[in-house]
Each structure stands twice: as structure tokens, then as C-alpha cells.
Amino acid sequence: MRLTEARRRDRDRPLLVSRWHETADRHLTQLRRSLLITWISFGVTFGTVRVITHGIRGGWLPWGNISAGGEHLHHYNLGIATLAGVGLIAVRGDERAVGHPAVAAAYGCGTALICDEFALLLDLRDVYWAKQGRISVDVSLGVISVLGAYLTAKPFWHEIGRVTRHHIVAAAARHGGASA
């Protein structure tokens, strides 16, 4: 039954998209796929939010800030709500949902929304357009860089971790043996 469903989906997809899915299935574990989707959704969300906020402030977008009851809703509020939803999925432990690409995308988006207003959360003042607001950009670019560095060299980082653990254990054993 599953194979038939997969074939039907493949028939309904354009050939190139099917080939992309096959390539992803061959080269990406579920964890690596989730990390990649998180990284991409973080970067796209961060970039999109920056464009939108500049467009609102510059007046070249046809809409304004989101408000509720006269209070401006910062996009970190949407990020917190998104991460709360992702957390609920994780706590429930539904394996199909936990590993679903939409969950990874939501996690990346929610995290980007929060990081983009990191300075506001740090100072508890709306410093988005002030000099102090630059820390939000720095944090967001740092997250993108760290995730990218991890993803591009994952086997290397895992080997570095293994070698480091082995070294620490061996050093502890030598040190423990010398004092006995």
C-alpha cells in the first residue's frame, strides 16, 4: 500500500521535484534533513522579516505594524507562540510529527522571529532601529553561520567530538593513575 502511495505521489509531482526528493532520501538522514530545513527556514524568515520591517518603516509596503487592542505586537511574540507549538509537538512525542519537515520549518521560523528582536528582549526596550538593535542582526547571522558550519562539516565535527572525548578520558585515566 505504501509503495503504491509513493508511486502515485511521484506521478503527480514534476519530474525534477521527484528527483530532488530521491536525492534527499539518498543523502540525508531524518536528522540532517530537519537541520537543513531549520537552517533554510531560519535564514529565509530572518531575511524576509528584515525586508518587511524596512518596508513598513520606509513606507514602501502597503501595510503597517500588527496591533492588538492598540498595542504593537512585535514579531518575537509570533516566534514565541510558534516555538510553544513546536514544544507541544515534542512533548507529545508523536514520532511522525516530531520528524516532519513542517516542524523543522516552524522551529527555524520561530527562532528567527525571536533572534531578530533579541536586542529588545535583552534590553526590554524597543531598540530595533537604534544602534543597540544591531545585536539582533549579529545574533541572527551568528546562528546562520554556526548552523551552516555544522551542516557543511557534520562528520568532521562528530569526529572532533569523539577525539576530544577520547583525549579527556585518557588524560583523566593518566592523572587518576598518577595520584593513586
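the 2nd protein, sequnce then structure:
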Amino acid sequence: MEGKISLDLAEGSWTAGGALTFTRASDGRSLRFTGAHGDLAQRSMLVDATVGDQAARPVDLSTYELDMTQVTVTMPSVNSPGRIEGKPFDTTLEPQGAAVFSRAFGASPVPPGSSLATLAGRVDVVPALD
């Protein structure tokens, strides 16, 4: 991931590379998420969603809450990068996210406002050299 963040996780953004593709075995219909990026102040995750062979469209996929007692921040030093580690937390499916699942597969796996996935993560933090 790349981005700019405040170590209190109250502002900034992040961007993640890679892709996540869902393919239904029975008919080959697919949904691919790429270009994930987040807004830390809004606690939101946006992705570029591709349904089948259609052009990718930006989608407000999910939001999340962070319990700061479940997050560890290690400050960077001269000898090592800092790190932010988050214990598992739930994401909540947004209406646009439910709509793109419905376009791809006829239905969303969960209704908007419900937990979409549980995530945990670790990000190395390298201070900017301005």
C-alpha cells in the first residue's frame, strides 16, 4: 500500500495495488475489484469495479470503524520503518457496493449496512523526506 497518513489515523489516504476477482463457477460471471483506495477521515474504501467485460467504474464499496485500542502504532526510526498494525475489524457494505454485486451476480452477498468482510492488516510506515 502507498499513501499519506497521520499516525493517529484521523486523516490521510491509502492506495493498494493488486486485484480481487469473484467468479461464479456455474456461468462464469465475474466481478473484479482493483485500485482500492481509502479515506482515513471518512473511514471509507473505494474500488474500481469491473463487471464481466464492462469498463471499470469507481464504487464506494465499504466503510469501517476502528477501535483504536485494537491498533498498534510503532514510530519509525533511523534504523527501521514504523508500523501500524490493526487487529481484525469489520467492514460495512455500502449501497454502491451492494449494487455492483447485484449487477454482477443478480444479488448482493449481504444487504447494505451489513458486515461485508473482517479485515486485519499491517502497514510499514516510512517517513517522507521533504
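The first helix runs from residue 95 to 105. The chain has a mean pLDDT of 89.
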